Amino acid sequence: MALLNFKRRETPSERVVTPEMEAFLKGYSIEVMPRTAEKVENFRDLLPTGTRVYIAHIEGTPIEDMVATAKRLAADGYPVMPHFPARIIKDQATLEDWIARYQGEAGVEQALLLAGGVEKPHGDYHSSMQLLESGAFDRAGFKRLHVAGHPEGNKDIDPDGSMKNVEEALRWKQKFSETTDAEMALATQFAFDAGPIIKWADDLAAAGITLPVHIGIAGPAKLQTLIKFAIACGVGPSLKVLQKRAMDVSKLLLPYEPTDVLSQLAAHKAANPDFNITNVHFFPLGGIKTNATWAIDNGGASTVPASQQG
């Protein structure tokens, strides 16, 4: 019986980090939730100081837990960007209360505004555009506002599988960005195939949408985990990348790593400096420590262990 020929994984010391990858990973961000952040003893052992940390606000998470997580991360030297999911915010008073808590207790001055994954709104808001229109973030002096981007569309927004409503919303957000003092950017859903990502980004630029793109990338994880999240989050065409990998017995048992997609995007950025993808945003689906370690091993800025920091 023939033995399966599994490819030996390279150790970090054996990896060749290209200047293109190092440049592309500069200024990367990562996402946490209060319950996952609780498991991290010291973020300064994992993330370079100054790394932007998004805090995902899942339905049912008390605002007190969100603010406490933001306060902890800010105290450790990380710019914090909490999610504001429109559909779980009851009304204007609630929105302004959240903003006041984040600012008063954690010094937060940036936010990711999105509709949220709730089918039925809990109150007055159902879209990030309504949150922007409220003026609450401008009045509070927020310096940076990110909104969602969908390289492969979003069936919650376009049930027919088109990009019609998504594109219309992006045009609206582009116009809004010209009226606010806050810096704006698109933070996208994760995808696995560089080709469609590049085409989508180029199509945005051709349509006059000049908002910088922070591309969502799934961090290292078990293949089964990624497929589960990809299906749940409505990831479309690039799901085939995972399905193809699942059919390769030599890769089936190995953890997925985003090396291929990021290498291709980094090379494209190096060859096309005006390419509108400016940053990488990691979804640590296989764990924060695993993702942070991979980023450092592959060209992300190194960090000094907290025990050695002054």
TrEMBL record:
Question: What InterPro entries does the record point to?
Answer: FAD-linked_oxidoreductase-like
Q: Which UniProt keywords apply?
A: Oxidoreductase
Name the domain of life this protein comes from.
Answer: Bacteria
- Any idea what this protein is called? Methylenetetrahydrofolate reductase
Q: Which organism is it from?
A: Roseovarius phycicola
High-level lineage:
Bacteria, Pseudomonadati, Pseudomonadota, Alphaproteobacteria, Rhodobacterales
